[in-house]
Amino acid sequence: MRGAQEVEWTDPWSALRTLDGGEWLALLDSGGEPDERSRWSYLCYNPVETLVVRGRQVRRNGQAVSGDPWGHLRNMQARIPASGASADAPPFDGGVIGLASYEAGMFAERTPCRHESPAPTLIAASYDSVIAFDRLERRCFRSGPPPGLRPHAHAVPQFKTPLRFLPDMERAQWLDAVREVIRLIGEGDIFQANVTMRWKANAPAAFDEIAAYGALREGSPAPFGAYLRSPGFSLLSASVERFLSLSAGGRVETRPIKGTAPPGTNHEETAAYAAMLAQDEKENAENLMITDLMRNDIGRVCAIGSVTVPQLCVVERFPHLHHLVSAIQGELRPGVDAIDLLRATLPPGSVTGAPKRRAMEIIDEVEVSARGAYCGSVFRIGVDGAMDSSVVIRSVERAGNTLRIGAGGGITWLSDPEREYEEMLLKAAPILSVFEE
What we know:
Layout: E1 5-7, H1 12-18, E2 25-29, E3 40-44, E4 49-54, E5 57-60, E6 63-65, H2 69-78, E7 95-100, H3 102-108, E8 122-127, E9 130-134, E10 139-143, E11 166-167, H4 171-186, E12 192-202, H5 209-219, E13 224-230, E14 233-239, E15 242-246, E16 251-254, E17 257-261, H6 267-279, H7 281-299, E18 308-317, E19 322-331, H8 338-345, E20 353-354, H9 356-366, E21 377-382, E22 387-391, E23 395-399, E24 402-411, H10 417-435
Antiparallel strand pairs: 1-10, 2-3, 2-13, 3-9, 4-5, 4-8, 5-6, 7-8, 7-21, 9-10, 11-12, 12-20, 12-24, 13-14, 14-23, 15-16, 15-22, 16-19, 17-19, 18-19, 21-22, 23-24
Domain Chorismate-utilising enzyme C-terminal: 171-427
GO biological process, one term: L-tryptophan biosynthetic process
Organism: Acetobacter nitrogenifigens DSM 23921 = NBRC 105050
C-alpha cells in the first residue's frame, strides 16, 4: 500500500522548472487566488504506463495493441495500487492523467471528421509518483520516490522568443461561416453551434516549453491550468472551465461556461459589464441551451431523477473576462464509472452546440482545420475512481514544430456576426499577447 508523505512546501511552478521528467510529464496547475475550487495542484512524473491513440491505432507503453482505448485506460487506472488514506491526504495521489481531443469526442458520437488532426486522439499515462500542492494551506505531499532534478535548477527560464501566429481563416471567411450557421438555425437544423478557428506558428529549434508555459500561466492564471508533455506532442493550457468532476461516491458536477463580457478597468465599469452580461438575452439563451444539453449528456449515465441545476446563468469574474456559468449535478447509476461518464459526454457541450451531433457535423463543414486538443478535455482519474477534468480552452498545443491556439464562440439565432468575431478576438488576445511581440 502506498502513502502520501508530507514534504517541505514548494510552489508548483518552482517544482516544474526543477524537475527532470523525461518524455512524459503532467502538471495540473491551479492558478490565481486559491479557493476550494482551485486549491490543489498536482505534478506527476515517471509514469507506470502510457497510452497513445491516433485514430484507430493504439499504442500502450510504446507497443501496438488491439482493443478499445477506453478499456486500456480503465485497466491502467485499476493497476495503480491504493494508497494509505489519512485525514489530510490529498484528493489525488495516483491514477491516470490524460487528454481526450475534440476528435475523440467525434469518435464517441460517431461523427466523421474531414480534417486531419496533428494532435493524438487520446493520450494518457498512469502515475504513482505525484507531488500534491495544497495552495490554500501551503503544504506539499509526495507519493512515490523523489524526482530527479535538473542541474542549475535555480536558473528561472524566461520566454524571450516572440512568435508570429497566423489565423487559419480570414475575417470575411469566418463571418461567412457564422452567417451559414445562423441560416441553418433559421431553417431549424440546430439551435446553436460553437464556431472556432485556429492560429498557427512555427516553433523555433530552441523553443523552451517550460518557459513558454511559465509565461502563459503568468499572463493568464487559471483554475484549470495544465502542462502535459508526451513524445512529439505537448499541451500548455490556461483553462478557466471545469468540464466534469466526479466524487468517489458517484456525485457528478459539470459547470459549462457560455456568455462573455470584458472585465472592466475600474469598479463602476466592472459592475456595468457584469450587469449587462446578466441581462443579455442572447448570452443567457446560449448558456441555457448548453445547460440543457449537459443535463441530457450526464443523464445518459446518471440515476433517473438525480440530475439537477443548482446554478443557472450566474456571472463570474475571471482574470481577463466575465462569463455566465451554470452548474449541473447528478448521481452516477450503479455499475457506471468515470470512463463511462467521459465517453457519454465528450466532446464538452459548451464547445459543440445543440442538438450536439448535428452541431458537430455543421462545425466540421464550416471550420477549415481539425480542433485537436482544443475543445477536448484534460482529465485525472484517481485510484478511488474520483475524477476531475477541464475543457481545453485558452491553450497552446505543440505537435512537432507547429504551435496552435484556438478561440471561438457560441452562435445562436440572435448572434451578430461582427460582434461574435470581436468576442472571439477578446478570448484569443490574452494567449496571443503572451507570445507575440
